[in-house]
Design goal:
The complex is a heterodimer. Chain A contains two helices and five strands; from the N terminus they run ββββαβα. Chain A is α+β, with helices and mostly antiparallel strands. Chain A has a five-stranded mixed beta sheet, covered by helices on one side. The relative contact order of chain A is 0.32. The model of chain A has no long low-confidence stretch (mean pLDDT 94). Chain B contains eleven helices and seven strands. Chain B has a seven-stranded mixed beta sheet, sandwiched between helices. Chain B has a domain of 185 residues: 2-enoyl-CoA Hydratase, Chain A, domain 1, CATH 3.90.226. Classes of the chains: A alpha+beta, B alpha/beta. Chains A and B meet through strand 3 and strand 5 of A and loops of B.
Amino acid sequence: MEHLKFEFKGSVRQQGCQQTTLVGVVSSGNLEVMLENVDLDGLCRINVSTSAQGFAEIWQAVLNDFVARYNLADLQISINDGGATPAVVCLRLDQAMEEYLETST
Amino acid sequence: MSDLSGIHRGHSYYEATARSRISKLLDSNSFRELLGPAERITSPHLESLGQPCSFNDGIIIGSGRLNDLPVLIASQEGGFMGGAVGEVHGAKLTGLLERAVDERPAAVLLLLESGGVRLHEANAGLIAISEVIRALLVTRDAGIPVLGLIGGAYGCFGGMGIVARCCDALIINEEGRLGLSGPDVIETTMGVEEFDSTDRALVWRTVGGKHRYLLGEVQCLVEDDIAAFRVAAIENIDKAQPLSLESLQQEHLALSQRLANYGQCQDGINIWEKMGIDDPQELPLMNIPSFLVVVENHVQGKL
């Protein structure tokens, strides 16, 4: 198991989104993504637990793209990963954001 | 067959995740999760084995309403380790059943999808299953019906197969499978001559929904649609079965009768033939409404 932590400076704060959003299932080549509203002083924090070791740079690249798309602040993202490919990770992150933003008031 | 007119159809139970099954089965927006993912109550064993954990440990529990009646509900996620029952997973299920005795909902719904014990967690998983069975029987003894729903890709086997058969009533789709040792386990331990687990048709003739329905082990056979499961759950919500020494003895009698009648049969088809069904080889090909008509007078009494 490898545990990775990433932090990004974000500027968009969502109003009224539900506290917790979870999508995906931890299985081979798949992952679960949980979004939580947390006061992080403007940061977006992403914690990844993955069964595939040695892919920190790939995670960094995928998450850079994700953050560039949404630029969110005060959001904690927690990922349990069963060795998903970058494309599946992107898909799940977008799915999580879609569900999260749907709950916005 | 239940009347499904006026109900939103088109959501396969087989393909849905544990979470989406709950939201489409219960009255809309009525589900409230207990010990949700944000609480991070995860397996204490998987990390040390180098396995990823899940924030739900493969089971979602909570309360909600079904046709405006209060229910408690659990839903196993087959995608996470085949729905296998670990220490936390089992404790959530046990806790939900114990809660039912305190809260007295109209029923407890168990959406079962599991290969059984999570063997990585060894004794903790095995003990969890017996705790679930004890809690289930205590709940039934308190007069609260427990309904099992089976119809996911991973079937319902091992310890959870036993749990299923302890319920008041079971609802299954054709795709659903119910058994103790699963096909792969039988082949691994007894050899391919005993059971060829790659023979899909044989698997379904042995542990599939239609066969389990014919044997009287499940009470409702429905189409693979969450709406159909919902209708069947509503119909069975108040059908608590007696739980007594007498009912147990009757069940044992029926089981020995079944063994005497069909113990020599090598295949589901032989059993269906002995039941007196014309053209038994046609049964696997029939859609659910036609199947239910053809077998109407042949279904074995409830076991």
